[in-house]
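Task 17 of the worksheet. Students: predict the tertiary structure of the chain below and write it out as structure tokens. Keep your answer in the requested format; marks are given for formatting as well as content.
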Amino acid sequence: MEIIKKFAKEISVFGLVLVIFIGLMVYRSATYSTYKTISTKSFESMVERDQSFIVVVGSSLDTDTENYLDVVTTYQTKHRHPKIYYVDIANQSSNYTKQILGVDVVTPTTLIIKKGEVTAKKAGAIQYYTLYDFIKENN
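Model answer:
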């Protein structure tokens, strides 16, 4: 009988820890959002299908891009819509975006694409409020 009580206590403590852990995971998913990284093939497919979206074109080899992605994460956490995508062009040719979109870019560059065409672009690692205003004005 004593063994059963001890076993029940252990199970209840484990259950409590499990419930707290699940609660924290749900809280994080409800309050935290980030950009979505897509492959170059997915990016090309979205352009070919004439979709409308916002994309940050950058290079994983560039520290400006890494720092800017923190700004994009902050924006996505506060404003879940529209979804922002990130495409890494580090392994692509220097004229990759020129071939796909007809636009030269530096890394990072934020592009607003409507129906497969670039309607607005903002070059460089911009600040949060600049990103906010850029999206608000052009989306």
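Marker's comment: The first helix runs from residue 2 to 31. The mean pLDDT is 90.
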